[in-house]
Write a structure and sequence with these properties.
The protein is of the alpha/beta class. The protein has helices at residues 2-16, 22-29, 33-45, 110-126, 165-172, 181-190, 250-253, 256-259, 266-272, 277-301, 309-312, 319-329, 348-363; strands at 49-55, 63-68, 74-80, 84-91, 96-103, 134-141, 144-145, 151-154, 163-164, 176-180, 198-204, 208-214, 217-219, 304-308, 339-341. It starts with a helix and ends with a helix. It binds zinc ion (ZN). Zinc ion is lined by residues 231, 241, 243, 245, 248, 250. InterPro entries: ATPase_NBD, ROK, WH-like_DNA-bd_sf, WH_DNA-bd_sf.
Length: 365
């Protein structure tokens, strides 16, 4: 038991510190050199680590450096939206090796899933990765999924009546999991946070979603609808929402509420925003609605909030303004230092959907 835990400890250290030497392991892990030698040789035999270079020592002998074998296993993450497919390939270090984004209208049909299979084939061939070395394909989508991540239970945005993972696995030839998009993105953003943190991830993308992350895991709620702040009511008798209600947050804070003024291109909206008076007026109204939503989340959960999704990754220049307004809105005089910008700005849903299989693989070492 202890032997295995030493091996895991050595692997974890090398994972977090690529190019580690035996001397560094000895100093930082408080293990004897024979124990480290034995762990290194087991990890090398298992192909989990590789000899990655030499550390040049002044005077004495040069030391071998070790890193994890990033190419040993991969995971694929897919973000399915109404009109696009994004696909990422990540390695054992959880780094993006490559990604593809194509315009493709979703349909729950054989031809759609055959196209997904072709995209997977393309990215694997391009990066010379064998299908056998892919652990899993995690699929994030704007839908509610069950707790075992093998079934869509509500898929109004995509028009899904029923979708089970085994149907997709038949087409893709890989083990698959289905994730709610906001849960995937929130997990991808916070997986390496201290486990005691409770955080709310607000996804401001084509649709608005959210995820409560507690002790490193999404909190799903009693009926899997936790974090669905897109359907809080912002304006009584407001715009019609796809859920059947009126005035929902989704209808005011989804990215298309800004990008519809620039032919669907959010980058152009934010590029032109500083100089465009009409856009400034639109964005000021957006910020008022955002602040109202953030205040409601804070009141219920009293935790840190991450601004994520397409809009969240453009908010850096406006964070101070948002925080000032939020300070004024707070009933208890809380300072809004609990608001953070997302770090994962590229393909956050796909990366978050790809991560669990990599983390499980490492956990089992
Ligand atoms: Zn709604």
């Amino acid at each position: 038991m202890r032997k295995n835990s030493n091996k895991k400890e050595v692997f974890n250290y090398i994972y977090s510190n690529p190019g580690t030497t035996k001397q560094a392991l000895q100093m930082n892990l408080n293990l004897s050199l024979p124990t480290i030698n034995s762990c290194i040789s087991q990890l090398m035999d298992d192909n989990l680590i590789i000899h990655s270079g030499m550390e040049k020592n002044t005077g004495g002998r040069n030391s071998k450096e070790y890193s994890i074998n990033q190419q040993l296993r991969y995971s694929i993450g897919i973000d399915i939206t109404k009109n696009h497919i994004s696909l990422v390939l990540i390695n054992l270090s959880s780094e993006i090796v490559d990604y593809i984004r194509v315009k493709k209208k979703f349909s729950n049909t054989e031809s759609y899933f055959i196209q997904l299979r072709e995209l997977i084939k393309t990215i694997l061939e391009k990066n010379k990765v064998e299908l056998n070395n892919v652990l899993e394909c995690g699929i994030g989508l704007p839908a509610l999924t069950n707790i075992t991540n093998d079934k869509v239970v509500y898929g109004e945005i995509l028009g899904i009546k029923s979708l089970e993972v085994k149907e997709i696995e038949n087409y893709l030839g890989l083990p698959c999991k289905l994730y709610n998009d906001a849960n995937a993105a929130g997990f991808g953003e916070t997986w390496n946070y201290p486990p005691t943190n409770t955080t709310f991830y607000l996804m401001l993308s084509n649709n608005v979603g959210g995820c409560v992350l507690s002790h490193g895991e999404p909190y799903y709620g009693n009926t899997l609808k936790s974090g669905e702040v897109g359907h809080l009511r912002l304006h009584s008798d407001g715009k019609q929402c796809y859920c059947g209600q009126r005035g929902c947050v989704d209808q005011y804070l989804a990215s298309k509420q800004l990008s519809r003024f620039t032919d669907g291109n959010l980058e152009v909206f934010f590029d032109e925003l500083p100089e465009n008076q009409e856009f400034r007026t639109i964005f000021d109204a957006y910020v008022i609605d955002l602040v109202e939503t953030l205040n409601a989340i804070r009141m219920v959960l009293d935790c840190d909030i991450i601004l994520g999704g397409y809009v969240g990754s453009h908010l850096e220049p406006y964070l101070h303004t948002i925080q000032e307004k939020l300070d004024r809105r707070n009933s208890f005089g809380d300072k809004s230092d609990y608001i953070f910008l997302c770090n994962q700005r590229k393909e956050s849903i796909a990366v978050g959907a790809a991560l669990p299989s990599i983390l499980s693989f490492i956990e089992e070492i």
